[in-house]
Write a structure and sequence with these properties.
It contains three helices and eleven strands; from the N terminus they run βαββββββαββββα. It has helices at residues 14-19, 92-97, 156-169, and strands spanning 6-12, 21-26, 32-37, 46-49, 65-71, 78-80, 83-91, 99-105, 108-114, 123-126, 142-149. It starts with 5 loop residues before the first strand and ends in a 10-residue tail after the last helix.
Length: 179
């Protein structure tokens, strides 16, 4: 008679779920088990390890170990299908003038070009920097939403410049005129 299946729960980080990982866990019977987490793992998915469950009876096959994967939340990244979403603070000068700035991805930091005239809420795409896809499908993308952040204490030079600029370039950001 085939042995029974056993169920386990495994907590992994966001990065381990996206990039894949190898984990060693100790089973209740004291045995260690090496688990390969495939790239692109989703929260709540089950991994089946054939023959790692309860022993069979009377020469029967061993049961399976069923491992439910729980993915921890990440402070910067959020998964959206095979895409990853994040938010990035940019300075007023970077938004107005444009800039090349470092951006964190799950695979490491990359340089992204912020177009001149960018605004809070604008979303830029980093192709292929999302979740690796299974088979021949392309990896997801990372979408970075910009958040323009002013200096903690604007100095008098910035304040004076903005007052002069507003005299000739006033627009209503709530009404959509001038943007």
């Amino acid at each position: 008679m085939r042995g029974g299946d056993v169920r386990y729960s495994l907590d992994i980080s966001f990065e381990e779920a996206v990039l894949g990982a190898k984990k060693r866990v100790t089973m209740p019977d004291g045995k260690s088990l090496d688990i390969a987490i495939p790239p692109g793992q989703r929260d709540g998915q089950m991994l089946r390890l054939r023959g790692k469950g309860m022993p069979g009876h009377g020469g029967g096959a061993e049961g399976d170990a069923l491992i439910e994967v729980h993915v921890a939340a990440h402070p910067v990244f959020r998964r959206d299908g095979n895409d990853i979403r994040s938010e990035l603070a940019v300075g007023l000068h970077e938004a107005v003038l444009g800039a090349k700035i470092p951006v964190p991805t799950v695979g490491g930091t990359v340089t992204m070009t912020i177009p001149a005239g960018s605004n809070s809420g604008d979303t830029l795409r980093l192709r292929g920097k999302g979740v690796p896809a299974a088979g021949r499908r392309a990896a997801g993308d990372q979408f970075v939403t910009l958040r323009v952040v002013l200096p903690a204490k604007p100095d008098e030079k910035l304040r004076g410049f903005m007052q002069e600029w507003a005299k000739d370039h006033a627009y209503d950001p709530r009404g959509g005129k001038g943007r």
